[in-house]
Each structure stands twice: as structure tokens, then as C-alpha cells.
């Protein structure tokens, strides 16, 4: 789910993770695709005149290009702003290309250029919420590389930056960043903290978001299904840790199963293939955890068939191996052994970039 960039928040994505903004987009959800920081090649430069910015360590005052006495343009200042706008556009194009190629290291390199340009020209001569979006792009790239700590650090910087200037309209974006942080915590193995984060988001969705701006309320309703998925996966991971320490995780698996089944219905209705796939996989493991071999096998077969229909051979192979493990664990026959091989699709769809762990 969280393999996107975000990000929805990069995650959401997201998540994710992901509607494009004038020069940037929010994370997700994670489910987060590539989402996140976007610079349109024809985006107008958000220059503010008579403002003080920091450039390469020097304090420089941006002068108004219009001489208020003669009403003539200062071509030098105009040219400077045009050059800065082009440099931002180039970085935006580099980011988009790197994400399209799933080249996460190149995304990180492009983000570094963005941070350097932001320091050079200052926030007033940069895209809206530039630092926030750059950090989320970096967070999503690290997440996609399996670098949980680095993803968590970058997402935390993004959240703290946004909170300093956040308005009521930014509440949904803050919630998406929190969702990404929950998935990053899962990636680092901190299931307990991740569960706390997801529960806090759900509380906001069910209470304060209903009093927020209409667009925030709508975004919160749409976010609920992926947050439920994250919460279910967090509880499942906690149950697996309990079992690893020779404890009884049956009750936790059952709790996670109920939540994941609710999330599956919502994600299926939303036709979110990445979340449905993650849902099914989590449900399979929960059925194994509660000792229901029949449902575990049946759901694993559904997972395999879903991956096959989605043109995801990697998912098919994963599900096939998982099914054999389940059959070995419960000492039951594998229903796929001896069954005719399913015809492989002629074309394969790209892997869904949703912000799932």
C-alpha cells in the first residue's frame, strides 16, 4: 500500500498515501501512486516582491520589478524570476521522470536539488508548501526502498513544516502525512506506535473532521478505508510479534481480522486494487493466526486469483508459496496441486503504487 510516492503522502502517498496542486500535490495513500510533489512546466512562479529571503547564506531583498514612479519593468529582476521558475520546472520534470521509472534513488537526488534551490532562493520564490512536499517525496522514496527510519524522519519533517503554517484547509493533508507515518512505523517494526497513530486518525475522521471545511470532510471519509487497513495491519503485526515470543496472539488476530474485513469491503467498493491485495493478504494471515485452515486456504486462493486478474505474476507466485506453507502448517492437501495452470495474461499491468507496508 505504501509503495507509492505517498507519494499520496508522497505517501495515501499516499498515500497516500493525491490530487495535484498548482505546483505540488499531497501525499498517499500512501496508497499512497507516485503522487506528491509536482511542478508543472508552465506553473507560474509564486514570487512575492518586497520580501526578504535567504539565498546561499546571504540575506537578499527581492525588489519589485515594477518602478512605481515610471511604471516601467526592471528587466533584470524579471529575468531573474523567470530563471528561477525554469529551474523549479526542471526539478519537477526530473522528479516526475524518476517516479515514472520507479527510480527511487533518482527521486532522492532530485529532492536534494530542490532543497538546495529552496535554500538559495528562499520560500517566497518557491512553490507552495515546497519544503513540506519535498520532504514527502523523499519519505516516499525511502519507503519504497524499504528504509523505514529514513522515511519516518523525512515524513516527520514534512509534518512539522506544514504545522507551522497550516490552515483549516490543510487538515486533510496533515492526516494523510500521519497515515504515512503510521505505515513507516510498521516498516520499522513499531506496530504498537503505528496502531496509536492509526487510531488517532480514525478518531479525527469520526469527530473533528465532520466539523471541518466540506472538502476536508469529504477527504476524511475517503481516507477512512485506507486508515482501517493500516490499523488492521498494525494489530496483525503486533499479534505476529506476540506469537514470536511464544505468546498467544489469537485474540489480536481476531481483532485484526474484523477490522480488515471491514476495510476490504470499502476498498473493494472503491476499486483500489493495491489496498484490496494488501487486505486479502492480511486476512489470510489472520485466518492462519486464529487457526481457521479452511478460510485461510479459501482466502489465499482468492488472493492468487485476484493477482492473476490484475496481471501481477509476482503476487501470484507469492500467493502460491503462501498457500503451500498454509497446507504444510495444517497438514492438509494443497487444492492447487494437480490443478491445470491458469493462462497467463498477455500483458501485465504495472505494480500498484499504493502506500501499504
From TrEMBL:
Q: Which Gene3D superfamilies match?
A: Tetratricopeptide repeat domain
Please name the InterPro entries in this protein's record.
Answer: TPR-like_helical_dom_sf
Q: Segment Disordered: which positions?
A: 338-357
Protein name from the UniProt record: Uncharacterized protein
Organism equals Bodo saltans (Flagellated protozoan)
Q: Lineage, please?
A: Eukaryota, Discoba, Euglenozoa, Kinetoplastea, Metakinetoplastina
Amino acid at each position: 500500500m505504501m509503495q507509492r510516492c505517498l507519494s499520496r503522502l508522497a505517501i495515501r502517498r499516499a498515500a497516500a498515501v493525491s490530487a495535484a496542486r498548482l505546483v505540488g500535490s499531497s501525499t498517499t495513500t500512501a496508497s499512497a501512486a507516485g503522487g506528491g510533489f509536482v511542478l508543472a512546466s508552465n506553473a507560474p512562479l509564486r514570487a512575492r516582491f518586497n520580501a526578504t529571503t535567504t539565498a546561499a547564506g546571504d540575506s537578499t531583498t527581492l525588489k519589485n520589478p515594477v518602478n512605481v514612479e515610471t511604471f516601467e519593468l526592471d528587466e533584470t529582476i524579471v529575468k531573474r524570476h523567470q530563471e528561477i521558475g525554469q529551474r523549479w520546472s526542471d526539478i519537477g520534470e526530473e522528479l516526475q521522470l524518476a517516479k515514472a521509472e520507479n527510480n527511487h534513488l533518482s527521486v532522492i537526488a532530485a529532492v536534494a536539488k530542490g532543497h538546495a534551490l529552496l535554500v538559495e532562493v528562499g520560500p517566497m520564490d518557491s512553490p507552495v508548501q515546497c519544503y513540506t512536499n519535498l520532504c514527502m517525496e523523499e519519505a516516499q522514496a525511502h519507503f519504497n526502498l524499504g528504509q523505514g527510519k529514513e522515511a519516518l524522519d523525512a515524513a516527520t519533517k514534512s509534518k512539522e513544516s506544514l504545522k507551522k503554517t497550516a490552515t483549516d484547509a490543510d487538515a486533510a493533508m496533515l492526516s494523510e502525512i500521519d497515515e504515512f507515518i503510521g505505515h513507516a512505523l510498521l516498516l520499522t517494526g513499531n506496530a504498537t506506535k503505528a496502531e496509536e497513530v492509526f487510531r488517532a486518525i480514525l478518531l479525527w475522521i469520526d469527530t473533528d473532521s465532520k466539523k471541518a471545511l466540506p472538502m476536508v470532510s469529504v477527504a476524511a471519509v475517503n481516507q477512512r478505508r485506507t486508515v482501517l487497513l493500516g490499523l488492521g495491519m498494525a494489530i496483525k503485526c503486533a499479534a505476529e510479534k506476540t506469537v514470536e515470543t511464544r505468546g498467544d496472539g489469537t485474540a489480536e488476530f481476531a481483532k485484526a481480522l474484523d477490522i480488515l474485513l471491514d476495510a476490504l469491503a470499502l476498498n473493494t467498493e472503491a476499486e483500489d486494487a493495491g489496498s484490496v491485495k494488501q487486505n486479502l493478504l492480511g486476512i489470510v494471515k489472520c485466518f492462519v493466526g486464529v487457526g481457521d485452515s479452511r478460510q485461510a486456504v479459501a482466502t489465499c486462493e482468492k488472493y492468487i486469483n485476484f493477482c492473476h486478474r490484475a496481471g501481477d505474476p509476482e503476487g501470484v507466485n507469492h500467493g502460491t508459496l503462501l498457500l503451500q506453507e498454509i497446507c504444510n502448517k495444517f497438514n492438509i492437501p494443497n487444492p492447487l496441486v494437480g490443478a491445470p495452470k491458469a493462462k497467463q495474461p498477455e500483458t501485465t499491468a504495472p505494480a500498484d503504487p499504493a502506500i501499504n507496508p
